Structures are given as structure tokens and as C-alpha cells.
């Protein structure tokens, strides 16, 4: 059972990462992100953090906030990790 006392911290972490991602999106083109491995991996990690934090949010909280696409948010971490691995292999 997940600790619902930790939900606020997880939500704060998700928000912090989303704000950072948005700021970087405004500062960089897709092409520059694709060509900069450090930037690419940093942004990828932020996305994984959001997905992982969403996964750890309690069912009770998710049930009380069904307007959010929890499955899609959680699924980002499952999509990003294999893509990240492929990108890494292409850079080595």
C-alpha cells in the first residue's frame, strides 16, 4: 500500500519537472535537443521522473482526480526508457 502522506511531495516533484521541461522546450529546438546528448538525457530523465512519481501516487488520490490522464502520464516512463536506450546506442 502506498503512503498517501507522500502524495503532496510526489505531486510537487512532478510539477517541478514539468516546469523545467517547459522552460527548456522554450529555450531549445527539437533539433538542438536531438543533437545534444547531455540535454537529451537530462530532459528524458525529467520525463521519467514525472512518470515514476505519477505511478507512485495513491489510488485514492488518482480516483479523486480522474480528470487527469494518469495512465498516459505513468506510461511516459515505460516509453521513454527504451527510446533513451536506442538513442544511447546511436551515440556510442
User: From the structure provided, what is the oligomeric state, counting identical versus distinct chains?
Assistant: single chain
Helix content: over 70%
Mean pLDDT: 85
Q: Which structural class do the helices and strands define? A: mainly alpha
Largest sheet: none
Low-confidence stretches: none
- Radius of gyration in whole Å, from Cα? 15 Å
Count of folded domains: 1
Principal-axis shape: elongated
Q: What string gives the helices and strands in order?
A: HHHHH
Number of helices: 5
Give the end-to-end Cα distance, rounded to a whole number of Å.
41 Å
- Beta strand %: under 5%
Strand element count: 0
Can you give a write-up of this model?
The chain is mainly alpha-helical and 92 residues long. The protein has one domain (4-91). The protein has helices at residues 7-27, 30-35, 37-56, 59-64, 70-91. The model has no long low-confidence stretch (mean pLDDT 85).
